[in-house]
Task: inverse folding
């Protein structure tokens, strides 16, 4: 456990993948190291963009730091806003190889686990607070089938199985402008805005145990 007088929050980003030189999740997340938010100290860690080893690293850090909240952050190139993930599904279906050269197709994240697990976060409170801060954001109903979904499902399954008082979930963020210039027509978000969004979501997640009942669904 971390040697601190404060309870902890664990925030993770990913290493670059898919030919990108940077990953905006880690670029932003690492800037929060040591911050105090709602009386909690923020601990940041970079996860490998690899199936299985990403979860091993996450579980080891949860055991080491005993956080009250785990928020995992990943890149979603092509999305235009902060995407708070609602649900993770128990499948790996990799369109491209991970950074270790693995490409699982139609395998479970956790053998025998439920088909899907919802985030352990007040996602609509988080959304409301982002909108109040004039930060573009939405609730996403798919975390994909790559390493991001793998990590979200593994985290939520761990919480259900081992530590039900732990809050946890996943957020996707857009490309940085420096990445978007290499992807014609792709939207982007500045690191400054992403950092503000992360601070807001951490605060909201720590302050609220019950979620808001506001409409944030989609028709397709």
Result:
């Amino acid at each position: 456990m971390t040697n601190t007088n404060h309870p902890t929050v664990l925030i993770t980003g990913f290493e670059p993948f898919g030919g990108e030189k940077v990953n905006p999740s880690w670029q932003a997340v690492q800037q929060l190291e040591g911050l105090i938010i709602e009386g909690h100290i923020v601990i940041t860690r970079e996860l490998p963009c690899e199936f299985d080893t990403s979860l091993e690293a996450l579980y080891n850090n949860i055991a080491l730091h005993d956080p009250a909240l785990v928020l995992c952050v990943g890149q979603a190139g092509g999305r235009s806003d902060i995407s708070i993930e609602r649900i993770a599904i128990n499948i790996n279906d990799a369109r491209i190889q991970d950074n270790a050269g693995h490409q699982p197709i139609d395998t479970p994240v956790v053998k025998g686990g439920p088909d899907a697990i919802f985030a352990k976060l007040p996602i609509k409170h988080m959304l409301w607070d982002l909108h109040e801060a004039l930060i573009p954001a939405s609730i996403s109903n798919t975390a994909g089938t790559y390493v991001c979904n793998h990590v979200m499902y593994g985290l939520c399954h761990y919480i259900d199985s081992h530590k039900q008082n732990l809050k946890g979930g996943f957020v996707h963020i857009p490309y940085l402008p420096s990445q978007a210039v290499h992807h014609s027509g792709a939207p982007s978000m500045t690191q400054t805005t992403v950092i503000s969004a992360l601070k807001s979501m951490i605060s909201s997640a720590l302050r609220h145990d019950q979620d808001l009942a506001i409409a944030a669904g989609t028709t397709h």
Notes: The helical segments are 24-29, 53-65, 123-132, 147-162, 177-180, 191-207.
